[in-house]
Specification:
219 residues, alpha+beta, Arc Repressor Mutant, subunit A, Beta-Lactamase, 2 domains, two-stranded antiparallel sheet, 7 helices, elongated
Length: 219
C-alpha cells in the first residue's frame, strides 16, 4: 500500500515556510537570532534557509543592520493568478471613476484562506483621504467588508478599527455569486465635499458595473 502524502516530510521546506510566516506576522525587521528563536531552531539550522530565501527574493536583508524582512514576492506570485488579474483589470476603471466622483479612496477585497485580503486600491484625488494598503488582511468578523463577502450584503457602518471612518461596502458578483467586495472608507470631515448618502449610491453603481463586466455584460 502506498504511503499517504501527509506522512512525507521536507524539513528544509518546513523551515523556509516557518520563516516566511514568522516574518509576515512582524511589523518590523528581525535579526538572524530572533528568527531562529521565533521558529524554534538554532542559528545554524536557519542560516542556509535564510540565504536561499534571500537569494530567491522572498526575504530582504538590510545591508547595514543585517536585519531581515519579507519582500513582496509572495504577493506578486498570488497576483499572477489569471482569475485575480482579470478581476483587478475589470474593476480598475469603475474604481477610478468612483474615487474621482466621491473624492474618496476605494479598495477591492476578496476572501483569502478565511481572511479579508485587499487586492486593489485607488487613492483619493482629494488632498486628504484614507487609504488601505494593498495586501493588507483583516479578520472577517471584524469588518464590514467581511460581512459583504460572506453575506453578499451592502454594508454601511462605522469602522471598528479606525475612528472617524465609515465603511461603505458593496458586494461584487460574477455568475457564481459574490467573489469580492468594493469598499469606500468614507472620511466625514470638512475635506469631504460629497455627503455619505451620495457615496453609498456611487459605490453601489460601481459595484454593479464591476459585476456586469464580470458577467460579460456592458458596463
Amino acid at each position: 500500500m502506498a504511503e499517504q502524502p501527509s506522512t512525507y516530510q521536507a524539513p528544509a521546506l518546513d523551515k523556509g515556510l516557518d520563516i516566511l510566516e514568522l516574518l509576515a506576522d512582524q511589523p518590523g525587521e528581525l535579526s538572524q537570532s530572533e528568527i531562529a528563536d521565533g521558529v524554534g531552531r538554532s542559528v545554524g539550522q536557519v542560516f542556509r534557509v535564510l540565504a536561499t530565501l534571500e537569494r530567491r527574493g522572498y526575504i530582504v536583508r538590510d545591508a547595514q543592520s543585517g536585519l531581515y524582512s519579507s519582500s513582496m514576492k509572495l504577493f506578486d506570485l498570488a497576483h499572477r493568478n489569471p482569475p485575480l488579474r482579470g478581476l483587478i483589470a475589470v474593476a480598475s476603471a469603475p474604481m477610478r471613476d468612483l474615487a474621482e466622483s466621491t473624492r474618496q479612496s476605494c479598495n477591492l477585497s476578496v476572501l483569502d484562506a478565511g481572511r479579508v485580503r485587499v487586492i486593489a486600491q485607488v487613492e483619493s484625488p482629494a488632498d486628504f483621504g484614507y487609504r488601505v494598503r494593498v495586501g493588507a488582511e483583516f479578520a472577517v468578523e471584524e469588518t464590514a467588508t467581511g460581512r459583504a463577502l460572506t453575506m453578499g450584503e451592502t454594508v454601511v457602518r462605522p469602522d471598528p478599527l479606525q475612528a472617524g471612518i465609515t465603511d461603505v461596502v458593496v458586494p461584487v458578483s460574477d455568475a457564481s455569486g459574490t467573489i469580492a467586495a468594493l469598499t469606500v472608507p468614507y472620511v466625514a470631515t470638512t475635506f469631504s465635499a460629497i455627503p455619505a448618502e451620495d457615496v453609498v449610491a456611487a459605490a453601489t453603481r460601481a459595484g454593479a458595473a464591476i459585476s456586469r463586466l464580470l458577467q460579460g455584460e456592458p458596463r
